[in-house]
């Protein structure tokens, strides 16, 4: 692996390397395959070429100094792992002409009104701005999962502030397309779902016309201590929705069966969903409607 102070995540400006190492040495590194050319001016350590930070650093170096990572790319670097890693999103000012390159999405906007920081040496927009961009344009399940992950990074008392910051970015966004959809998703986000799959499950429930459940609903024993924590629960009809995101095995199935039996003794109806149900939610949605009817609660 190439180790040089001018490199950031294995990305180098050709001129810097030539100045420090000499043209012959740089050509040798290219010939032997230790370096690969991202562009005429940007070289990349081949062994790191597919690493996400390396691709982001290469895109920024190629795009120029007055650019910053935005949308999914910024959100992922902020810790939202539900964000798409395939395309690197770069934001530049309105007066700069967007450049075209496969794997890089260019956006234009005002850099003066957004917060810009650095994560692992990479210039990124603030998290609220990134999430607002995702909420307006990304697939809805991905967008909700990213919003949940952003809120989950804050303490319970600080989550409203994060929610409000994202809402402000939505309201002041120059491009109003997708704003109403984004607000509907942001209103569902709580930061409580423990995985992107659970966020997608919540979206399927709401899209199916059922009431919004409580995420991570606690079940207490008679002493007020937490006995269980449901992925989703409707407290009044005592209906629970649990997501099975693990590989099934006998020990786990036995524990789940015992847990469901204990919940049933406490008056709860438990419906379980799997990854397959996220692709086609009709089965568990039908079971939920039957459960609501059994409890004499009207729903769609």
List the helices and strands and how they pair.
Elements lengths: L10 E3 H8 L1 H9 L3 E3 L4 E4 L6 H12 L3 E3 L1 H7 L10 E5 L11 E5 L7 E4 L2 E4 L1 H11 L2 H13 L6 H13 L7 H10 L7 H12 L6 E7 L5 E9 L4 E6 L5 H16 L3 E6 H5 L2 H13 L6
Parallel strand pairs: 5-6, 11-12
Antiparallel strand pairs: 1-3, 2-3, 4-5, 7-8, 9-10, 10-11
Helix pairs in contact: 1-2, 4-5, 5-6, 5-7, 5-8, 6-8, 6-9, 7-8
The dominant shape is elongated
SSE pattern, N- to C-terminal: EHHEEHEHEEEEHHHHHEEEHEHH
DSSP strand count: 12
Query: Which strand order spans the largest sheet, edge to edge or round the barrel?
Result: 9-10-11-12
DSSP summary: helix tally: 12
User: Would you tell me the overall average pLDDT?
Assistant: 91
Organism: Actinokineospora alba
Domain DUF559: 227-278
InterPro entries: DUF559
Pfam family, one: DUF559
Question: Could you characterize the architecture of this molecule?
Answer:
It is a single chain. This protein has about 300 residues and is of the alpha+beta class. It has 3 domains: about 1-50, no CATH class; about 60-190, no CATH class; about 195-295, VSR Endonuclease (Endonuclease, Chain A). Helices cover about 45% and strands about 20% of the residues. The chain has helices at about 15-20, 25-30, 50-65, 70-75, 125-135, 140-150, 160-170, 180-190, 195-205, 250-265, 275-280, 280-295, and strands at about 10-15, 35, 40-45, 65-70, 90, 105-110, 115-120, 120-125, 215-220, 225-235, 240-245, 270-275. The chain has a 4-stranded mixed beta sheet with strand order 9-10-11-12, sandwiched between helices. Strands 1-3-2 form a 3-stranded antiparallel beta sheet. A hairpin with a 4-residue loop joins strand 2 and strand 3 (about 40-45). The N and C termini lie far apart (about 60 Å). The model has no long low-confidence stretch (mean pLDDT about 90).
């Amino acid at each position: 692996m190439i180790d040089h102070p001018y490199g950031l995540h294995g990305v180098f400006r050709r001129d810097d390397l030539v100045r420090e190492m000499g043209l012959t040495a740089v050509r040798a590194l290219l010939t032997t395959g230790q370096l690969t050319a991202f562009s005429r001016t940007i070289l990349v350590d081949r062994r790191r070429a597919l690493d996400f930070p390396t691709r982001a650093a290469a895109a920024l170096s190629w795009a120029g100094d007055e650019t910053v990572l935005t949308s999914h790319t910024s959100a992922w670097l902020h810790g939202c792992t539900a964000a798409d890693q395939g395309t690197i999103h770069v934001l530049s000012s309105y007066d700069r002409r967007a450049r075209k390159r496969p794997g890089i999405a260019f956006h234009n906007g005002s850099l003066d009104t957004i917060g810009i920081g650095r994560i692992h040496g990479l210039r990124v927009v603030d998290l609220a701005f990134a999430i607002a961009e995702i909420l307006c344009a990304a697939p809805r399940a991905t967008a909700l999962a990213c919003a949940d992950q952003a809120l989950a990074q804050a303490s319970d008392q600080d989550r409203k502030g994060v929610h409000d910051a994202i809402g402000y970015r939505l309201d002041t966004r120059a491009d109003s397309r997708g704003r109403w959809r984004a607000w509907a998703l942001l209103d569902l986000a709580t930061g409580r779902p423990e995985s992107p799959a659970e966020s997608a499950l919540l979206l399927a429930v709401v899209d199916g016309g059922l009431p919004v459940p409580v995420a991570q609903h606690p079940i207490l024993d008679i002493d007020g201590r937490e006995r269980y924590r449901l992925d989703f629960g409707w407290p009044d009809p005592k209906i629970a929705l649990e997501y099975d995101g693990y590989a099934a095995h006998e020990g786990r199935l036995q524990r789940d069966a015992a847990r469901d039996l204990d919940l049933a003794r406490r008056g709860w109806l438990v419906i379980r969903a799997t990854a397959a149900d996220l692709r086609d939610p009709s089965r568990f949605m039908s079971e939920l409607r039957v459960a609501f009817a059994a409890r004499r609660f009207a729903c769609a």
